[in-house]
Amino acid sequence: MRLIDENGKQVGIISSTEALKIAEEHGLDLVEIAPQADPPVCKIMDFGKYKYQQQMRDRQSKKKQHVIKLKELRFRPRIGEHDLIMKINRARKFLNDGCKVKITLMFRGRELAHKEDGFNLIERVVEELSDVSVVDKAPVSEGRTIISFLISK
After folding, report:
1. What pLDDT digit, counting tens, does each position of 59-99 carry?
2. Domain 2-61, what fold?
3. DSSP SS3 for 68
4. Span 146-150, average pLDDT
5. What topology does CATH give the domain 70-152?
């Protein structure tokens, strides 16, 4: 096997027993890095310290991640004016917090005969929120619902 010492220098090609003996003399571990290589590559290192550093790197990268939350607002086609304004204000708050907003308009019974009213309502909501958001997905009719997605600018 090809051996790399703790400083990153190549020792050369030696047997596995000799490599283990060298690792034990230094009080470190013998770790196989590339088993598919010909000959396999091993490195002398403190494996516990290596795993700890790997965990710290993963934790740091997780801290820098930003998870986008999805908030849903459900409407009905015959929603009252005040209720609509309240829901628009709630959507504005969600968008200012950096969340993605899903607008769902649900039809029941014969309301489905007036889908154009539903599209008009969603267009009104999108227009009211145009100062803080952009349309991520245009309104699409899926069965008894119309769905649209908004994201903050």
Report:
1. 998 888 777 889 999 999 999 999 999 999 999 999 999 89
2. Ubiquitin-like (UB roll) (3.10.20)
3. coil
4. 96
5. Translation Initiation Factor IF3 (3.30.110)
